[in-house]
Fold this protein.
Amino acid sequence: MIEAKLQLQRRDFSLEVALELPARGVTALFGPSGCGKTTLLRAIAGLERAQGRVAMGEALWQDDARGVFVPTHRRPLGYVIQESALFAHLDVQGNLAYGRKRAGDAAQRLALEPVIELLGIGALMRRRVGTLSGGERQRVAIARALATAPEALLMDEPLAALDAARKAEILPYLERLQREMALPILYVTHSLDEVARLADHLVLLQGGRVQAAGPLAELMARTDLPALVRRGVPGAPDEAGVVIEAQVLERDEAYGLVRIGFSSGALWVGEAPGMALGQRVRAHVLARDVSLARVPPQESTIVNVLPALVEQVQADRGTALLQLAVGGLGGTRLLARITRRSCESLALKPGDEVFAQIKGVALM
């Protein structure tokens, strides 16, 4: 477990957090610009001198009450920023070797081949940094961080400087990191799409304080977190939605579809290349893609219709956001964004049984 209890006071900003984070998987630090995401990450790394306590499992990195502060260069962590910060005068192999040399004995015992394979950089080893694309440079930067044999990987908006094509190139490699690495990853981002694709655990920050923290699926299904549902932010994209962990159950090759199952239902989605029966997958369902009916729809083009129970209703001037439990109480949660007029015309309230019509599912 990672423990971070930190306070920092500046003239125009203060940070005060108390967190206990998982020792494996991706924890996303998410929130609006200026909320303290990067400051918190830098304080955990020791790059920002906050007051308090930081522990990585049994290792104590900071405890001001006991006069303990381990400097950054002695903390076994890897740190990746927006810009790759590679050495232009070295090739890829030289950059990795430099990272290992600086890290000491632990890095020398680490076999680099799995890291190179994981990030798909084998063909780049003799290339100069100046000849690499932005996505390639970031993959090398991540490999260099992993080459130091870190006990934690800290990533500060690693995709922010990339265009959409380069992001699409590197995201599958980050997903492999999430699945295959046994070390904790702290991931700062302002992209809810990256959160939905990569995170296992989520920390929402607002004004230097923790607004909420917990498993990703639980937090994304809540209706009371403005950072996730964008309520009251004119012009902001409506990104409210849920993440569902599922498994591929069957394939309809004639129509290019697969059926994925989860604890309380199943969905038909478009088949992705290389998808195998039994494979674990992650589905992202946006609230704006879910409509509701009181009775089962007849002769509809919508393939995915699931019975659900209304658990919560949050309405504003024009819309209503409903939390649903698929299959009834205790079922997998969905969110539905409908107009307030529709909500009132159907007289929807907690406890009502409805049919959720899912117009779109993004398979991660």
Notes: Residues 164-180 form the longest helix (17 residues). The first strand starts at residue 2 and ends at 9. The domain at 2-229 is CATH 3.40.50.300 (Rossmann fold).
